[in-house]
Each structure stands twice: as C-alpha cells, then as structure tokens.
Amino acid sequence: MTETAPHPPESDHTLDARRLLCPMPILRTEQALRPLPTGAILAILASDPGIEQDLPAWCRINGHTLLDLRPQGRGEWIAWVQKGE
Fold first, then answer.
1. Considering the entire predicted model, what is its pTM?
2. Cβ-proximal residues to 16 (8 Å cutoff; 6+ apart), any chain
C-alpha cells in the first residue's frame, strides 16, 4: 500500500461491503474486480475492522494494488484497489 494520498483516487466502480463480516468483504471485492479490465480502480466501502489486515494481504497474494485504505469514521473504511493482470 502506498502512503495515504492527499486526494482519493478516482474510481471506476464502487463496492458497498458495509454490514458484511469476514470473509464477505474480500469475496465481494474479488467478484466485483473479476469483470473489470486490468488497471481499473474499485472503491470499497467496508465496516468490518478485519479489512485493515485482510485487504492488503489479499491484494498482495492476488497481484492487485492497494492504492489507499483509510478510516471513514463511525467504524467504516474506504479503500481503493487497482486491478492487476
């Protein structure tokens, strides 16, 4: 993951994974990225605190780039993932 950017990346699609518990945010992320072209950016909204550990690891294992992951307050996070090849 890169350092937090001053401005959020522009996303091509948004996934609302709030109110889902592990492993569902990661499974939904995988499903949402599958039809997207390489290089597309997916914004992910999540409320499961496990996303902070799970998403970076999942991206590393699957060849995607975690552009940013930041808390949104109220126990929510937003992340931007760029699809790898």
1. 0.88
2. 45
List of E strands, the chain = 13-17, 41-46, 65-73, 76-82
Which amino acid type is present at position 84?
Answer: G
Low-confidence ranges of the chain (pLDDT < 70): 1-6
Cα separation values, 62 from 22, 47, 67, 75, Å: 18, 22, 14, 26
Active site residue 22: yes
Q: How many CB atoms lie within 10 A of CB 72?
A: 12
Catalytic choice (20, 22, 40, 45): 22
| Secondary structure percentages of the chain, helix, strand, coil, to 5 | 25, 30, 40
